[in-house]
Amino acid sequence: MSDQAWQRVLEPRTRPERVLVLGQSGMVGRAWCELLGSESIEHEALARPEFDLSDPESINRALDNRYDLVVNAAAWTDVDGAESDEQGANRANAHAVEQIARRCADFGLFLITYSTDYIFGGSASSPYPIDAPIEPLNAYGRSKALGESMLRAVSDHHLLIRTSWVHAPWGKNFVLTMRSLMQSRDQLSVVDDQRGRPSNAGSLASGSLDLYLAGAAGTWHLTDAGECSWHGLACEIREQLGRSCEINPCTSEAFPRPAKRPAYSTLDIGPTEQLIGPLPKWELGVRQSLGHSFG
What is the pTM of this model? Predict the structure, then answer.
């Protein structure tokens, strides 16, 4: 399938008048709310228990014609937990996405929703293009891949954004976990055989809005620029914190997890940068997450 079949650029759009953010309490949902507030864009945000991806009725209640843009930042994000409850992951990341897309289509609403680098198998040695073969290694990746296919089958009035290694000044994420561990430990071991692109949630939200305004539709990749391993990311966190903690590289086998991770999941962001300009370096995104957490 050609890139053109996967992604499209329509006429530039005007700023949305009223936005509905689903998944307010998550990293990306909160970042969207902060962005919309700073841009003085009217918005409403929902989170559990009022809005629950496992409850079809709550989805129906949430969506109506009061909005012109819906941002679905809600998802099942427990990668390891999906291995023991793939049905639950499929409900949240696939069937609920299909229902949201259908409701948006009923009311003529444009939908922005998110997918993951974990839909890819990890055997590549250069960044994955949009139309690379989808070969997830774990249940979480399969649930996201299913959600992508169900979304495309329902409507093309959407912007599906694949991203990776999301972190923020809030929530449970690698950057804040490392910050906490470096305060209490003199030595850490961090996996060095998985490579990808870190993504600051604030940069992800602002880049998503930029893509929307530029007329993007279909499937796009959006992360911070550059790539690293988890070990490289941990070393950068240490550098920015000014810690002396020793960080030793190790293999994935040293930390067995229920869900297998791809060894290489760097996303090709070239088309995105061609449309909206250079994306911020991942090191800057880390600085923003750490700096905000001190505030």
Answer: 0.95
